[in-house]
């Protein structure tokens, strides 16, 4: 009996080793371990074995079975591994073939710059507000201490709808709307479209964007204005950015200033980009004029504040080194794709 | 404003600094310098040469050989200039020197032109004799220079001396940007005063003294101001025995450096005083002043007047005129009249220095279409106190220059001067306002430099009359700040109540619109808000459409930019067209911008500014691609209920069979469609274009960023497929309405999975197949639940005249 089992085992292992495919292995499994297989036949012949020998024979059969299964599994796993390797070999791809992109669209550079400015000021506790683009003369001029016949009115080349209604030339009017709401303190920025009667060329557009800023509270100082805008410049143009404030004049702020930032190309040593100056003019600002506060029913003895106005296109052109403003309104996809 | 630094230094004699240092300091104290230019830039080794001998060039007809005494030696120079003769003194650049440019007066090269000794047609030439253009200047500025040839000195000079010095070119012209509030700084004296304060040097203005003769001008002429609201002061003086001649060189040089062409002594004096004092002046030939009388009054409507440039101007009753006893002789503050202009034969001159209402001059100048140097200054509103000093300065120059005889006395008609502004001195408040700790003494010292008078007993600061900009506390604080130094003011951040930074809901929705559009392949464009009224025709908009009621610009840049858009499509179509024209493939653009709907015509109030989310594309994709973008966006802003489409959109600019209104909860929130082929033709786009426009104000009430988790279904779903033959005119939207209405609570979703028209289906019909899914939240569905719901749906569909297929 023992010899017979050894024979079966040896035959099975021989057949396993000869098998070249998974289905052959399966055949081997069936012919030896299956219901009609040889080992099963041995078990079936158990009735002829003396009862006292049966446990021993049973054990021998089970050992042979286990051995055959072990060899079978091993062969199967080797074979599968080989097959997988062969398959993967056949599946080699040229990873340098072009990518299949979802082809997402692109934001306008103005918007990218605007979102960055908004992010900075929202982080400093400013609310973003909007105002009307078609505006009343009062909000665009008079309430900003630019009375009728003021020469500053001419400087801005206003588009008029009629004597009372115009296209706003500056976002500064939003200051007035915001102050009139009567909720203090105020920390706001107001981005938006403004209009001036300039013919289109590389540096002018009759329609462009500004971002107005306004802070009104008790104890706001010129030093706070400087600090806030210096912080803004660092956030926008990099930690190394230096700022310079020069006296200037705006009818609705006093004192007024223009802020230059150190050229972010050359760091201030002077280059073609900053026309050798080392500085780039970036925004106008100042302490809100007491007359403006009074017109908005805010007591200038109790409250002070500062305001600033940034040209969005100016920032976008500088930051992305765009050399012609017209590109911003042509919407050529080859331009937009670069942002 | 351009001024030579030498003129400033004349009144701040102790001022001595490098050009750059001067410009930087002036900018930082508030007189912004736009730039500066050295007049002697690239002028090296140029001396006065004396031509001792001229010979013909042996081999060239057009060249001459000059022996030129340059002081230390005599050198031989060959030139082609035709205007030279022996004995002339000329600017001569020596070997190794440099000139600014070529003799043709073209643009000056950055580094000038180096001059080396060499041979001209075989003859040694050791340098070059210079034309005025080669010295970087022009005949405008040096009228005595020949049109084509070497500059010849008209004044006594010595061979070998610095020719640039002799020409007055060792100077720097500084260009200032004077702000509109500082009318006093539109003058040499104003800038000099600021320079003196900036550098803490004494300001030494000219001492004005007029001798005058024994006569009294008041016996000679009279002045009457009839419209004193427009003319607050009129000073007049008279000069006799005028001798017209060129003005002296120093005056010519100063004017030239300011960009004013020297003409003759009389004209130059008025210009000189205008530059120096910021007070425009005018000179009349007294012979032409009828009745020796000046009357200042408004013109009459419809009058015409010939200004001294020869133009005939139409007048109206708001224009102020200078008249004599009979006629108008000057357009006040703008330009004198042809009928009283100074000629070389003038004998007696009447000088005017007046102060006019700035706003009136500005408006008149605009209406008459004539803006002059004088009107540009007058319109800023001048200090009437300055007029007298200016006219006396002019008369002083007449005497000093030997230009004529000044008649004694002055005719001075004026309104009482406004009181000088007084402001309380509040040093603590100034410091609190600026965030500084500047001592009271330092503030007072700054006021002293600026001629702001402080009275200790009243604690009041009095602003000088020329500082019309100083009115209140903040103005005083600014004076302190700019002379203390903006750079020295500390930098701090605002303290006080904390505020929450935020983006309002509307802008968050717009941000989401940008995100989704971009995920879907659309890039952001920006379009103008104003466009041409022709756009309506291009878009086939009916002539009676309310869209043609626009907010119209009264003074547009041109018709093409004259109306505020009432529909956003033109911008995106124009942008698509320019991309198409440039052969860009598969272009998808979106725009977020307002349209402007007037509430009434004519416009009397704010129009309704409606933010439009406009999408447009050509190339890959079709109507349903665009529809997908719309739905992606609406879902992303929480509009998850059924979006419906009404094909009867009535948009003339869209394909009649491929357009739809977009509805949410029965509100029209926008439209989409294929652009009408006639419209794409109008834009020269030769392919299909799809657009969608979402009206954001209609979307905002439904949009929300609130989200609530609803649980993932625990119980299994059951699906049923139905296939039907439907009359072609029935929209799948109608079928879906039935499924939705009749599916009951257990209806989870339904999906169109097949739609077919063609040979297998009878004519006029289409085959449509849906997969409908049911699920209950709380139990496994029974067969009877599903079949019940299905039965209801099928009954409903049959009611539409639909045949079910097996």
Question: What keywords describe this structure?
Answer:
heterodimer; A: 339 residues; two-stranded antiparallel sheet; 13 helices; 9 strands; B: 806 residues; alpha+beta; seven-stranded mixed sheet; 39 strands; elongated
Task: Please describe what this structure looks like.
The complex is a heterodimer of chains A (339) and B (806). In chain A, strand 6 (243-250) and strand 7 (253-262) form a beta hairpin. Chain A starts with a helix and ends with a helix. In chain A, 42% of the residues lie in helices and 19% in strands. Chain A is α+β, with helices and mostly antiparallel strands and 339 residues long. The radius of gyration of chain A is 42 Å and the shape is rod-shaped. In chain A, the strands form 2 sheets. A 7-stranded mixed β-sheet of chain A has the order 1-4-5-9-8-7-6, with helices on both faces. A two-stranded antiparallel sheet of chain A has the order 2-3. With 806 residues, chain B is α+β, with helices and mostly antiparallel strands. Chain B is built from 21 helices and 39 strands. In chain B, strands 27-30-31-35-34-33-32 form a 7-stranded mixed β-sheet, with helices on both faces. In chain B, strands 3, 4, 5, 6, 7 and 10 form a 6-stranded antiparallel β-sheet that branches. In chain B, a hairpin with a 7-residue loop joins strand 32 and strand 33 (654-664). In chain B, helix 1 crosses helix 4 (188-199) and helix 6 crosses helix 7. The mean pLDDT of chain B is 94. Chains A and B meet through helix 5, strand 1, strand 2, helix 7 and strand 4 of A and helix 8, helix 11, helix 13, helix 14 and strand 27 of B.
């Amino acid at each position: 009996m023992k010899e017979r089992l050894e024979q079966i085992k040896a035959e099975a292992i021989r057949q396993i080793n000869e098998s070249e495919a998974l289905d052959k292995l399966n055949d081997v499994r069936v012919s030896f371990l299956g219901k009609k297989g040889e080992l099963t036949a041995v078990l079936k012949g158990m009735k002829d074995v003396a009862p006292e020998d049966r446990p021993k024979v049973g054990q021998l059969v089970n050992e042979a079975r286990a051995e055959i299964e072990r060899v079978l599994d091993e062969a199967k796993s080797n074979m599968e591994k080989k097959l997988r390797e062969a398959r993967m070999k056949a599946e080699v791809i040229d990873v340098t073939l072009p990518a299949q992109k979802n082809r997402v669209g692109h934001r306008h550079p103005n918007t990218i710059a605007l979102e960055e400015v908004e992010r900075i000021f929202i982080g400093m506790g400013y609310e973003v507000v909007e105002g009307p683009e078609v505006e009343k003369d009062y909000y665009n001029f008079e309430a900003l201490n630019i009375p009728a016949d003021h020469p500053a009115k001419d400087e801005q080349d206003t588009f008029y709808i009629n004597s009372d209604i115009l296209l706003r030339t500056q976002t500064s009017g939003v200051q007035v709307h915001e102050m009139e709401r009567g909720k203090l303190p105020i920390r706001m920025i107001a981005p938006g479209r403004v209009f001036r009667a300039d013919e289109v060329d590389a540096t002018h557009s009759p329609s462009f964007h500004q971002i107005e800023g306004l802070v009104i509270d008790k104890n706001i100082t010129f030093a706070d204005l400087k600090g806030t805008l210096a912080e803004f410049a660092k956030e926008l143009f990099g930690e190394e950015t230096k700022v310079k404030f020069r006296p200037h004049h705006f009818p609705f702020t006093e004192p007024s200033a223009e802020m230059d930032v150190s050229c972010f190309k050359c760091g201030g040593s002077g280059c073609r980009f900053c026309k050798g100056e080392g500085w780039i003019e970036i925004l106008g600002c100042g302490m809100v004029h007491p007359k403006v506060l009074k017109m908005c029913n805010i007591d200038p003895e109790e409250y002070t504040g500062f305001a600033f106005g940034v040209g969005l296109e100016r920032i976008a052109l500088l930051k992305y080194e765009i050399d012609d403003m017209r590109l911003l309104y042509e919407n050529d996809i080859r331009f937009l794709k670069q942002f | 404003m351009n001024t030579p630094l030498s003129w400033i230094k004349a009144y701040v004699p102790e001022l001595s600094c490098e050009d750059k240092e001067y410009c930087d300091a002036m900018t930082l104290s508030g007189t912004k310098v736009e730039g500066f230019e050295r007049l002697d830039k690239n002028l090296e080794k140029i001396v006065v040469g004396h031509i001792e001998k001229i010979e013909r060039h042996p081999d060239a007809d057009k060249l001459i050989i000059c022996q030129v005494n340059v002081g230390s030696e005599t050198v031989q120079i060959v030139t082609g200039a035709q205007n030279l003769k022996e004995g002339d003194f000329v600017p001569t650049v020596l070997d190794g020197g440099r000139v600014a440019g070529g003799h043709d007066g073209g643009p000056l090269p950055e580094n000038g032109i180096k001059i080396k000794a060499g041979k001209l047609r075989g003859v040694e030439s050791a340098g070059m004799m210079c034309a005025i253009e080669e010295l970087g200047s022009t005949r405008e500025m040096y009228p005595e220079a020949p049109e084509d040839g070497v500059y010849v000195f008209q004044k006594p000079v010595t061979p070998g001396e610095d020719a640039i010095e002799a020409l007055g070119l060792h100077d720097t012209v500084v260009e200032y940007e004077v702000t509109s509030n500082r009318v006093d700084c539109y003058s040499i004296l104003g800038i000099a005063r600021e320079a003196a304060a900036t550098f803490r040097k004494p300001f030494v203005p000219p001492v004005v003294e007029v001798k005058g003769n024994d006569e009294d001008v008041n016996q000679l002429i009279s002045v009457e101001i009839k419209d004193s609201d427009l003319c607050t002061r009129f000073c007049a003086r008279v000069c006799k025995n005028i001798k017209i001649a060129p003005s002296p060189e120093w005056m010519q040089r100063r004017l030239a450096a300011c960009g004013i062409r020297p003409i003759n002594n009389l004209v130059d004096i008025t210009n000189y005083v205008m530059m120096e004092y910021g007070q425009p002046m005018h000179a009349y030939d007294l012979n032409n002043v009828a009745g020796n009388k000046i009357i200042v009054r408004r013109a009459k409507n419809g009058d015409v007047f010939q200004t001294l440039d020869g133009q005939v101007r139409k007048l109206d009753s708001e224009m102020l005129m200078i008249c004599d006893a009979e006629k108008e002789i000057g357009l006040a503050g703008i330009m004198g009249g042809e009928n009283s202009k100074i000629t070389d034969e003038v004998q007696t001159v009447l000088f005017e220095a007046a102060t006019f209402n700035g706003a009136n001059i500005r408006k008149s100048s605009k209406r008459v279409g004539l803006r002059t140097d004088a009107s540009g200054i007058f319109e800023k509103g001048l200090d009437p106190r300055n007029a007298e000093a200016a006219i006396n300065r002019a008369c002083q120059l007449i005497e000093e220059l030997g230009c004529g005889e000044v008649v004694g006395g002055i005719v001075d008609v004026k309104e009482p001067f406004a009181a000088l502004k007084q402001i309380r001195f509040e040093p603590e408040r100034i410091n609190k306002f600026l965030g500084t700790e500047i001592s009271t003494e330092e503030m007072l010292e700054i006021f002293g430099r600026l001629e702001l008078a402080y009275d200790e007993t009243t604690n009041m600061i009095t602003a000088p009359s020329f500082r019309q900009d100083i009115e209140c506390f903040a103005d005083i604080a600014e004076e302190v700040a700019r002379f203390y130094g903006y750079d020295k003011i500390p930098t701090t951040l605002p303290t006080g109540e904390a505020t929450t930074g935020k983006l309002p809901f509307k802008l968050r929705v717009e941000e989401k619109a940008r995100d989704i559009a971009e995920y879907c392949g659309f890039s952001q464009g920006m379009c103008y808000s104003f466009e041409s009224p022709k756009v309506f025709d291009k878009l086939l908009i009916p002539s009676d459409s309310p869209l043609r009621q626009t907010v119209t610009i009264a003074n547009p840049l041109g018709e093409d930019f004259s109306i505020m858009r009432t529909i956003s499509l033109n911008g995106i179509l124009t942008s698509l067209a320019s991309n198409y024209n440039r052969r860009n493939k598969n272009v998808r653009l979106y725009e977020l911008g307002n349209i402007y709907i007037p509430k009434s015509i004519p416009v009397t109030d704010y129009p309704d500014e409606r933010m439009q989310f406009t999408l447009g594309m050509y190339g890959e994709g079709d109507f349903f691609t665009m529809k997908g973008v719309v739905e992606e966006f609406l879902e992303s802003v929480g509009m998850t209920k059924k979006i419906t489409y009404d094909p009867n959109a009535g948009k003339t600019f869209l394909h009649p069979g491929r357009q739809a209104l977009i509805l949410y909860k029965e509100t029209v929130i926008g439209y989409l469609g294929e652009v009408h082929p006639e419209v794409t033709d109008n834009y020269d786009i030769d392919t299909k274009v799809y657009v969608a426009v979402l009206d954001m104000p209609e979307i905002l009430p439904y949009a929300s960023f609130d989200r609530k988790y609803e649980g993932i279904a625990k119980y299994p779903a059951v699906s049923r497929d139905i296939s039907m033959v439907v009359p072609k005119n029935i929209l799948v939207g109608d079928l879906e309405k039935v499924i939705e209405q009749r599916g009951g609570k257990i209806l989870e979703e339904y999906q169109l999975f097949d739609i077919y028209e063609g040979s297998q289906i009878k004519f006029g019909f289409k085959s449509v197949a849906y997969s409908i899914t049911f699920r209950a939240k709380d139990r496994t569905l029974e067969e009877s639940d599903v079949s019940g719901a299905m039965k209801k749906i099928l009954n409903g569909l049959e009611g539409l005249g639909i045949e079910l297929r097996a």
